[in-house]
Specification:
alpha+beta; globular; 6-stranded antiparallel beta sheet; about 20% helix; about 350 residues; about 35% strand; single chain; 6 helices
Length: about 350
């Protein structure tokens, strides 16, 4: 069973390019993932959820093509959207085989100068991204830290919180699991990218800055990655975007078009909100080494793979993935050029 948006870009050759350093207007990426489940006994009535295909548009990122294949031809696949616009595939199967594979291929492009995701101004005060979830509930330490770190500028508050998390949680693969809360990770002082993101969410929300969890990938990594987006006034995001681009005024001809034709629901009069992405696992702003798959209030809302089935059989999951650059171009939105780039380096990335 497969769902597909046909596009030859899915078969493009890999390029040796560092997307963070290339000056190309457009960079195209290909994500390949396999989720393999084996069952040691009978299983039936499977309902499986995959959040592995990005939305059509997310800030400067545009979906080009996708392909989802399920190894059992009897499976049925339907699609739904989450509250934050993520694509979720629901796979149903009456009788589950001893092995079941989900193969995903996605191609997407990021365009320089397009700006971050835009949201309506109501996102700045709405309770959904300010209210803690069970995984992101702050403890007394985080509440006290949030009070200390908070300043009048919400973006500066978020940057201060990001650095605080980076200093206090050591990256240690396998030290936590998907049920670990922000408070537990902070108390232990060790965790993975998911824990860094959850603690940052807890801090920002406690400081009055709305924030959401991001599930995605980084170039050169063999597992998925997680970070956070903070929701700030559009003016703050514009200023940051301009500084990152090395100019005081971001509104060049291409910048104007990108900022005024942003994501659906944005306030196009310039008084809206924007999502600025921060990676507390590395204490930095997210750049073109990252690609976004989904956003939600925490990991549980956008877990890449989850589901349920009946029967005594125990399922075991193995995964593999690869994210590559397959095109660069000086023409905005094309993303299938052949401009050579610098040798790819992971920059000490952990995950």
């Amino acid at each position: 069973m497969l769902q597909t948006v046909p596009d030859g870009v899915l078969a493009a050759a890999v390029m040796d390019v560092d997307p963070a350093n290339t000056a190309a207007m457009s960079v195209t990426y290909r994500i390949r993932q396999r989720f393999s489940y084996t069952y040691d006994g009978p299983a039936w009535q499977l309902v499986h959820r995959l959040v592995v295909v990005p939305p059509r548009r997310h800030g400067d990122q545009t979906l080009r093509a996708y392909h989802l294949a399920v190894s059992d031809p009897a499976a049925t696949v339907t699609w739904e959207r989450t509250v934050d616009g993520a694509r979720a595939a629901l796979v149903r199967l009456d009788t589950v085989p001893a092995r079941l594979d989900f193969d995903v291929t996605v191609a997407l492009a990021r365009t320089a100068g397009a700006g971050p995701p835009q949201l309506p101004a109501s996102a700045l005060t709405g309770r959904r991204l300010l209210t803690p979830t069970p995984l992101t509930a702050p403890d007394a330490t985080m509440i006290a830290a949030a009070r200390t770190l908070a300043v009048p500028d919400p973006l500066e508050t978020a940057l201060r919180c990001c650095s605080w998390v980076y200093r206090r949680i050591e990256y240690a693969g396998g030290s936590t699991d998907v049920t670990t809360t922000a408070a537990q990770a902070l108390a232990g002082g060790r965790g993975v990218c998911q824990d860094h993101a959850h603690v940052l969410l807890a801090l920002c929300r406690a400081a009055g800055v709305p924030a959401r969890y991001v599930s995605g990938h980084m170039i050169g990594e063999s597992t998925s990655h997680a970070w956070a987006e903070v929701i700030v006034p559009e003016a703050a995001a514009r200023a940051l975007h301009g500084r990152a681009a090395g100019r005081d005024d971001v509104l060049t001809s291409s910048g104007v078009d990108a900022w005024t034709h942003g994501d659906e629901g944005a306030n196009l009069d310039g008084a809206g909100a924007c999502a600025v992405a921060l990676d507390p696992c590395h204490d930095r702003l997210v750049d073109r080494r990252y690609v976004t798959v989904a956003t939600g209030r925490d990991y549980k809302e956008v877990a890449p793979t989850s589901g349920s089935y009946c029967g005594p059989g125990r399922g075991t999951l193995t995964t593999r993935q690869r994210v590559d650059v397959i095109g660069v171009d000086d023409v905005p939105g094309v993303g299938e050029g052949t401009t050579p780039g610098a040798g790819l380096a992971n920059g000490g990335i952990r995950q």
